[in-house]
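Appendix B. Chain record.
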Amino acid sequence: MEVKYILKQDQLFNKKITTIQQLETIVGEPSELAKNKVIPSIDLHCQTFISKSPFLVLSTSDESGRCDTSPRGDLPGFVKVLNKTTLIIPERPGNKRVDSMRNILVNPGVALLFLIPGLGETLRINGKAQLIQDADILSQMAVRGKEPLMAIAVEVEECFIHCAKAFKRSHLWNPDSWPAEQELPSAAKMLIEHAKLSNDSLEDMRKRLEDGYVNRLY
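Structure tokens predicted for this chain:
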């Protein structure tokens, strides 16, 4: 199937925004609320939000600024708040690429986005991360008798609530807006074609994925 793009490569971006002054002229000044909502530590409100969140997005970058974004999810409260400036994210078994961990080792700056199903507002946290293997901490994060391989400790520098406009526009939490199952992209097909696995059948890849989801979550 031929990909249908909106524009050809040589037709892109004739008018660019290249300065902060241009950007601020277009967007305007933030409100006092937007300016003042950032706090430097985890207060009771943030702690409650984190305790009810089963899912976050972790953003990292390497020494050259090349970025990566990775999902993390588990039962609500899987991220532990140690104190007002430190939280711990368990690292469960994955595909062993460990892109986020590689980045953290060379550039500790991270950004987190916490979600709660059904809630439009999100919690954003920025800070510095390190990888830890402290046995007493990992033991507290065991699931089904299995401890995480390691954990990401984040030293919090900024916390703030992000408004629900993106969720309102996208209708993300409205099941009536969700596409039918038969219309969803096939992860198995994408993997076969992207990785050029010509000897793997679609059904084999589906079984391979399902086996990982059932038997290798923890």
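Further analysis of this model is presented in Appendix C.
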